[in-house]
From TrEMBL, chain A:
Residues 34-141 form the Aldehyde oxidase/xanthine dehydrogenase a/b hammerhead domain. Residues 1-26, 442-463 are annotated as: Disordered. Coiled coil: none annotated. Gene3D superfamilies: Aldehyde oxidase/xanthine dehydrogenase, a/b hammerhead (3.90.1170.50), Aldehyde oxidase/xanthine dehydrogenase, molybdopterin binding domain (3.30.365.10). SMART domains: Ald_Xan_dh_C. GO terms for molecular function: iron ion binding; oxidoreductase activity. It comes from the Bacteria. This is Molybdopterin-dependent oxidoreductase. Signal peptide: none annotated. PANTHER family: XANTHINE DEHYDROGENASE, XANTHINE DEHYDROGENASE SUBUNIT D-RELATED. It holds the Pfam family MoCoBD_1. It comes from Streptomyces misionensis.
From TrEMBL, chain B:
PANTHER family: XANTHINE DEHYDROGENASE SUBUNIT C-RELATED. This is Xanthine dehydrogenase family protein subunit M. Residues 1-170 form the FAD-binding PCMH-type domain. The keyword Repeat does not apply. The keyword tRNA processing does not apply. Keywords: FAD, Flavoprotein, Oxidoreductase. It comes from the Bacteria. GO terms for molecular function: FAD binding; oxidoreductase activity. SUPFAM superfamilies: CO dehydrogenase flavoprotein C-terminal domain-like, FAD-binding/transporter-associated domain-like. Pfam families: CO_deh_flav_C, FAD_binding_5.
């Protein structure tokens, strides 16, 4: 075992080109930038039909009647289905709680809920047919926030709950509640010299992936169906789809289609069941592609949140206690809300040492759009609030905000509020030191001999300032994210690895069900196989359900867990290859029996570097194949009253420094630089690591200054479901992002690696907010910040 | 939906006369969005892309006759000197791809209060050249062109041929507020042009009223103040109180709404700030130019 904090030695194959630690290029990279990559929306099948979904135009209503006759009469229409046409008794689905109707039954609970589905021979015909379905709604009062959800006479979003959370929640409009209590926060508060309180609001962010929900369902001769689909987890989809269709899982074959981004928005089902139902009903292949407008209704969003915090500290800058209450709006259906509550509560204090905590997190059922998984998953909302609190405290104490954080920074061995020790490196103070030490971008970069270069100023080419009103601000933040599925979930992954000789060369084939959504798993799996098996040629088999589950491409877990499964399967293959070698050639050289043997450069070599045989000769006439599940350390559920328990697998840390220029008169912001330092344990592909960190940082910037789904509080209807009014950062909004990567090994993880995809999304937002506060002196307790908030015109 | 493809301007006018409900399409940057979102399903689309002269412009002695389909990219790159305000506005239109396709004719045809070109056209003082098969050509002053939310002064059988814009006789500025630094629909926009030849100032406000509007009271106040103080001749810095009064009157000319892009209060506030800044920039340029001229003389 390597010492903690030291880079882990690679056990095998470190000399094979294209192995781990190298920045090998993505196999799909060129295709994607040249527009040649086939995304799920590009699929086509002879004789296929187009599916269309009719969605509710109101947020909460009884369905009095549905009349499909005019739609059915339209030439070119093959099928129209409503709830009454569902083939089995299973008519609901859901990740954890099966509360989501496949098609609305008697009631709709949010704006844009699927009510009916249509298949036609042309997408436009399908759209027109859907528009001809007459739905008579009787509107009901809407539940939109904590007040309307928890009032004594509140309308219940779900009248007849029988899920496993109903027993411990104080109100049926609460999906799940998780308190975390450690020490005695009330007593500790008495020791505090300074106490700060704050109420914070986090807006509803969308994943805004570029490839809309889409898939193709092809009926098969055995009465089953083959679904080609863009998703994050094939086997989770399969588990939810098959019962609704009334088919055994083996008759629902699934193949991953080209995925255009996910960020959590493809963890829940979208059009999967609808396409399969229509294909089985019509006997024809059915393709469904959402347009951008529908996509905003077709997937869950990040939970908006209200967070109330109290922090205390002694005069010498040590935290005494934290009390907080986090209210997440889960919308109409549960989706991932219970797990988001677990994260928000257990990570609610941040990467700090605090012995006395009193935390409560809840998720509400409302008639707002359903919310669920998105990059950062509950930890994002909390980080925005606790980092604002840390700045407030530092100011009250007259301490530098970085210095104050460092005095309270957790390290290896610190106990989480859950009582779980952090048992791998936690370089929180060091990450802060590194971002602070980076050189600052020069001041007033817009000044030139030819006047102001507006591209360097807030507003850019919109030409709103030539320097007037512009003030620079600097802010810092750091965050903590869990890696992998927590709270006792059996978070395994499966890999099948085959090694054989093809055309005179040893070739490894890696087959997993891992969803490549852009994270780079396909690149990393090949690198692992090269390093472990000493071959240069690796084929990545398309992801499908012909191999065991790879778990979800989420929670920063795939390189850790499916990467771990590939590594494990490769090691088993290697042993089998060496056995064959010993059997065939053992008698020719004593080292076969005595030396430590490795596979490198297409050969079996001793640890002393002596080549014993070519893999081509060893594998002559024999292929080796292993399919094996792999698990990380088990976790435990959090106690429902105290929140105590070893709930998480691993933690991931990142820190940011934001430099902004704010036009204080117009309230416009230009983020000039977002420096990031992150510990990644081991960078399996350094270029991918930088890409993930820059992408996560930018997504955090988006929700700091522009990204928000706006829901009308009176009607619970979405007001901006398009990229015209849901703004995401353009390249001109994206700052320079210098990245400092630390590699401190986690001895429990494969190669010492740490999941990296989410941590940079956490601290980016509060760092930008802190910088804007620094520039304006305003309190700014909500994100995103809009110009109105900076100019007193909200 | 029928797709009409006239090969010449005369054919286009004849088609429009025959099918007055036909929706003209050139760059398609507005029309196609509406069709894709199914907000609009016209019976006929009238494709003007084969009418070559719509893509041309002529710079005369005093005015530029800008074909309705001249793309924003050309305005930015080729007409900076003649039409500085409109060139700045063109810079703020969407993305490079859309600027390569979209032109001022489309902005005028749609007549959205958020169209980027409108404040610059109002400030420069433009005339819209429209024509019909039955009645020939007529000129509509820009001040009379915008008649309501997404409504303009065109008759059903008329098409927009060109815009005639006076060549800049003084400094012009254009500023647009959006909530990101590129590719954004205006929360509000402001155009300002100094016309030393007539000793007048003209303004244009976008996205802050049901139609694009001028801040007439602000213009009148400033024209009087400049005249009274002899500013056009002495080139002195305009007093801060006059600048503030002008900015306040521009803000007061707004009649904005609250929507997902911004509040009415913010729009009014921002127009005041933009009015102050653009007046300061243009007046500074005017003084610089005057000093240079005097120095040369």
């Amino acid at each position: 075992m390597p010492a903690n904090g030291a880079p882990t030695k690679i056990t095998q194959g470190s000399h094979t080109k294209g192995g781990i630690g190298e920045s090998t290029l993505r196999p799909d990279g060129t295709l994607k930038v040249t527009g040649e990559f086939a995304y799920s929306s590009d699929m086509w099948h002879e004789d296929m039909l187009w599916g269309q979904i009719l969605r509710s135009t109101v947020a909460h209503a009884e369905i009095v009647s549905i009349d499909t006759s005019e739609a059915l009469a339209l030439p070119g229409v093959y099928a129209v289905m409503t709830y009454d046409d569902l083939p089995t008794e299973v008519k609901h689905y859901g990740l954890e709680i099966q509360d989501t109707p496949v098609l609305a039954h008697g009631k709709v609970r949010h704006h844009g809920e699927p009510v009916a589905i249509v298949a036609a021979d042309h997408p436009e015909t399908a759209r027109r047919a859907a528009a001809k379905i007459k739905v008579d709604y009787r509107e009901l009062p809407v539940v939109t926030d904590e007040r309307t959800a928890l009032a004594p006479d509140a309308v219940l979003v779900h009248e007849h709950r029988d899920d496993h959370h109903i027993g411990h929640v104080p109100h049926p409009n609460i999906v799940h509640r998780q308190p975390i209590v450690r020490g005695d926060a009330a007593a500790a508060a008495a020791r505090a010299d300074v106490i700060v309180r704050g109420e914070y609001t986090f807006g509803m962010q969308d994943q805004a992936f570029l490839g809309p929900e889409s898939g193709l369902a092809v009926p098969e001769e055995d009465g089953g169906v083959h679904l080609y689909i863009a998703t994050q987890w094939l086997h989770s989809d399969l588990r939810q789809i098959a019962p609704v269709l009334g088919l055994p899982e083996k008759k629902v074959r699934m193949t991953l289609a080209g995925v255009g981004g996910a960020f959590g928005g493809r963890e829940d089902l979208s059009m999967q069941i609808h396409a399969c139902l229509l294909a089985l009903r019509t006997g024809k292949p059915v393709k469904i592609v959402y347009n951008r407008f529908e996509s905003f209704f077709g997937h869950v969003h990040r939970h908006p949140a209200k967070l109330t915090y109290e922090h205390g500290a002694t005069r010498d800058g040590k935290l005494t206690h934290v009390k907080c209450r986090i209210v997440l709006d889960g919308g109409a259906y549960a989706s991932a809300s219970p797990a988001v509550v677990g994260n928000a509560s257990s990570l609610g204090v941040g990467p700090y040492v605090v012995d006395d905590v009193d935390i409560e997190a809840i998720a509400l059922y409302t008639n707002n759009p359903p919310c669920g998984a998105m990059r950062g998953f509950g930890a994002v909302q909390a980080c925005f609030a606790y980092e604002a609190q840390m700045d407030k405290l530092a100011r009250e104490l007259g301490l530098d905000p970085v210095e104050f954080r460092q005095r309270n920074a957790m390290e290896q061995g610190t106990l989480m509020p859950t009582g779980q020790p952090v048992d791998s490196p936690a370089p929180v103070a060091e990450l802060l030191r590194r971002v602070k030490a980076m050189p600052l971008p020069p001041e007033r970069q817009w000044e030139s001999s030819e006047g102001a270069d507006v591209r360097q100023l807030p507003g850019g080419l919109s030409n709103t300032t030539h320097g007037e009103g512009v003030v620079r601000g600097i802010g810092y933040a750091v965050g903590i994210k869990n890696v992998g599925f927590s709270e006792g979930f059996d978070d395994y992954s499966t890999a099948k690895v085959r090694m054989e000789v093809i055309a005179g060369e040893p070739v490894a084939t890696v087959h997993t069900a891992m969803a490549e959504v852009g994270q780079g798993g396909v690149t990393v799996h090949a690198q692992i196989a090269r390093s472990e098996l000493g071959v240069s040629r690796v084929t990545i088999h398309p992801a499908d359900t012909q191999v065991g589950s790879a778990g979800s491409t989420s929670a920063s877990r795939q390189t850790y867990v499916t990467g771990g499964a590939v590594k494990n399967a490769c090691e088993l293959v290697r042993e089998r290859v060496l056995e064959i070698g010993r059997r065939k050639f053992g008698s020719y050289h004593p080292a076969w029996a005595t030396a430590e043997l490795l596979l490198e450069g297409g050969k079996v070599v001793t640890d002393g570097g002596e080549a014993l045989a070519d893999l081509v000769d060893v594998l002559e006439g024999e292929a080796v194949e292993v399919e094996e599940e792999w698990r990380h350390r088990p976790t435990e559920a959090f106690d429902l009253r105290t929140g105590q328990g070893n709930g998480h697998v691993q933690y991931s840390f990142a820190a940011h420094r934001a430099v902004v220029e704010v036009d204080t008169e117009l309230g416009l912001v230009k983020v000039i630089e977002l420096a990031c330092a992150q510990d990644v344990g081991k960078a399996l592909n350094p270029l991918s690591v930088i890409g993930q960190i820059q992408g996560g940082t930018t997504q955090g910037l988006g929700v700091a200054v522009m990204e928000e789904i706006i829901v009308d509080p009176k009607t619970a209807k979405v007001r901006n479901p398009s990229f015209t009014d849901y703004l995401i950062p353009t390249i001109l909004d994206t700052p320079t992002i210098p990245v400092d990567v630390l590699e401190l090994a986690d001895e429990h993880a494969p190669y010492g690696l740490r999941g990296i995809g989410e941590a940079p999304t956490l601290s980016s937002t509060p760092a930008v907010l802190a910088a804007i506060r620094n520039a304006t002196g305003l309190e700014l307790n909500r994100t995103p910040v809009r110009p109105e908030h900076l100019t007193g015109t909200a | 939906m029928d797709f009409l493809r006239p090969a010449s301007w005369e054919e286009a006018l004849a088609a429009k006369a025959e099918h007055p409900t036909a929706v003209p399409i050139a760059g398609g940057t507005d029309v196609m969005v509406e069709i894709n979102f199914d907000h609009r399903r016209p019976e006929y689309l009238l494709d003007l892309n084969r009418v070559g002269e719509l893509h041309e412009w002529e710079a005369g002695e005093d005015t530029v006759r800008l074909g309705a389909s001249v793309p924003y990219t050309a305005i930015m790159e080729r007409l900076r000197a003649e039409l500085p305000g409109l060139a700045l506005a063109a810079h703020t239109v969407a993305s490079p791809q859309i600027r390569n396709r979209g032109g001022v004719g489309g902005n005028l045809g749609t007549a959205s209060p958020a169209g980027d070109a409108h404040p610059a056209l109002l400030a420069a003082g433009a005339e819209v050249e429209v024509a019909s098969a039955a009645r020939g050509t007529r000129m509509i002053p820009i001040d009379a062109f915008y008649t309501g939310v997404k409504r303009n002064a065109l008759q059903p059988d008329e098409l927009i041929r060109a815009v005639h814009i006076a060549k800049a006789d003084g400094p012009q500025q254009y500023s647009k507020v959006g909530t990101r630094n590129a590719m954004v629909i205006a929360v509000c926009a402001f155009g300002l042009a100094l016309h030393p030849a007539t000793r007048t100032v003209r303004t244009g406000i976008g996205s802050a009223a049901p139609t694009p509007v001028r801040a007439t009271a602000a213009e009148e106040f400033l024209n009087a103040a400049l005249e009274e103080g002899g500013f056009w001749d002495n080139g002195k810095i305009i007093t801060p109180s006059a600048v503030k009064r002008f900015a306040d009157l521009c803000a007061a000319a707004c009649n904005p709404i609250d929507d997902v892009r911004g509040t009415a209060g913010y729009r009014r506030h921002a127009i005041g700030v933009l009015a102050r800044r653009t007046l300061t920039w243009t007046w500074e340029s005017y003084r610089d130019a005057r000093r240079t001229t005097e120095g040369a003389a």
